[in-house]
Specification:
The chain has about 375 residues and is α/β, with parallel strands linked by helices. The chain folds into two domains: about 220 residues, Alanine racemase (TIM Barrel, Alpha-Beta Barrel), CATH 3.20.20; about 110 residues, Lyase, Ornithine Decarboxylase, Chain A, domain 1 (Beta Barrel), CATH 2.40.37. It is built from eleven helices and 19 strands. The strands form three sheets. It has a nine-stranded mixed beta sheet with strand order 11-14-17-16-15-18-10-1-19. The chain has an eight-stranded parallel β-barrel with strand order 2-3-4-5-6-7-8-9, surrounded by six helices. The radius of gyration is 23 Å and the shape is elongated. The structure holds pyridoxal-5'-phosphate. The site of pyridoxal-5'-phosphate has 12 residues, from helix 9. Catalyzes the interconversion of L-alanine and D-alanine. May also act on other amino acids.
Length: about 375
């Protein structure tokens, strides 16, 4: 193989168990949107369920349907839809639909009538993120529509949820303000006769730093994959988490060049001495950020080096000095860090982004290799 992504499914199961322990009586909805943050939707979802997740959460309806098509019958919530989406299959397959607006709950109800079934919905309240969710007076309209459509039998309002703006800064005043407004929204919905089974607001950062916000369920994503949502407060290990992803490529060429040789497009790196350059067959088409040009870290034969020159579409170069390296040498871009290799956080710091983006952007053209005990559960199943 030229370049690949290894996923430790046991790490995912372990992380969910750890998050569940921290959440106390609250259940865990493992968020597996974005192809499970680049880790592979179905295998990651199965590992999360094995680790004790009671629910799965995705942004897009198509992701929810993929999980059902793979035979996963766990409770499932999808929360990001544009007008005109066909809600029929979701209703048929018992998928909870997160609704932030009257137009959406009306369309869900219409699809439910057509299907002759009751749709399961969860109301999404905007308590200060100002993104998806019913804001201000729109909340009142959504609550009234929900009560009316539930009385008619078109929908069953199963839950209510919201999302933090500043969960990664637990002392920020909005963290408390959003909890207070959420409590008001919950009370308001219950006063309108809605029997809420699940009330939830905590992403990974809130699950780890604001346990008082757990309500009935927490919704961690990043921490499921073993990464820290609050790198300024702690590494994964500080929170009992194990990073699940390792990214490796094999050198295609290793060559000696003299001092003064410019490297890669635009020659933004120039060799200082005679040295060995190694070509690594991964680039921005694979998800390696071009912003990591001249700063991205790698590990070759146990030693750390830095990307030399620009990251190209399919490859980049590393200057390994006098290290004896030949074509085929494994180059580790990122991993858990136990063996001295760089982490997703190191890449995020180098490229000026967050670890979420580093792992989620790893292209699906890189094969996913699943390891760990739960990999056995994947035998004979299409993965990735
Ligand atoms: C992505 C997302 C989550 C998970 O966020 P993390 O920071 O990865 O834990 C939870 N809830 C909603 C609504 C989301 O969009």
């Amino acid at each position: 193989m030229t370049a690949w992504v290894t996923i430790d499914l046991d790490a995912i199961a372990h992380n969910v168990a750890e998050l569940s322990r921290r959440a106390g009586d609250a259940s865990v909805m493992a968020v597996v949107k974005g192809d499970a943050y680049g880790h592979g939707l179905v295998p990651s979802a199965r590992a999360a369920l094995r680790g004790g997740a009671g629910w799965l959460g995705v942004a897009q309806l198509s992701e929810a349907l993929q999980l059902r098509a793979a035979g996963i019958d766990a409770p499932l919530l999808t929360w990001l839809h544009a007008p005109g989406v066909d809600f029929g299959p979701a209703i048929q397959q018992g998928i909870d639909i997160g609704v932030p607006a009257v137009w959406e709950i009306e369309q869900v109800a219409e699809a439910a009538r057509a299907a002759g079934r009751t749709a399961r919905v969860q109301l999404k309240a905007d308590t200060g993120l100002a993104r998806n969710g019913a804001y201000g007076k729109d909340w009142d309209l959504l609550r009234d529509a929900a009560a009316r459509l539930q009385a008619e039998g078109a929908v069953e309002v199963v839950g209510i949820f919201t999302h933090f703006a500043y969960a990664d800064a637990p002392e920020h005043p909005t963290v408390l303000q959003q909890q207070q407004l959420f409590a008001e929204r919950v009370e308001d919905a219950e006063r309108a006769g809605l029997r809420l089974q699940v009330r939830h607001m905590s992403n990974s950062a809130a699950t780890l730093t604001t346990p008082s916000a757990a309500w009935d369920m927490v919704r961690p994503g990043l921490a499921v994959y073993g990464l820290s949502p609050v790198p300024q407060l702690g590494d994964p290990a500080d929170f009992g988490l194990r990073p699940a992803m390792t990214v490796t490529a094999r050198a295609t060429v290793a060559k000696r060049v003299p001092a003064g040789q410019g490297v890669s497009y635009g020659h933004t790196y120039v060799t200082e001495h005679e040295t060995t350059l190694v070509d690594v067959p991964m680039g921005y088409a694979d998800g390696v950020p071009r912003h990591a040009s001249n700063v991205g870290p790698v590990q070759v034969a146990g030693q750390r080096f830095t990307v030399a020159g620009r990251v190209c579409m399919d490859q980049f170069v590393v200057d390994v000095g006098d290290l004896p390296v030949e074509a085929g040498e494994p180059v580790v871009l990122l991993g858990p860090g136990d063996g001295g290799e760089p982490t997703a956080q190191d890449w995020a710091d180098a490229a000026g982004t967050i670890s979420y983006e580093i792992v989620t952007r790893m292209s699906t053209r890189l094969p996913r290799i699943y390891v760990g005990d739960s990999a056995g559960h994947e035998a004979g199943r299409p993965v990735g």
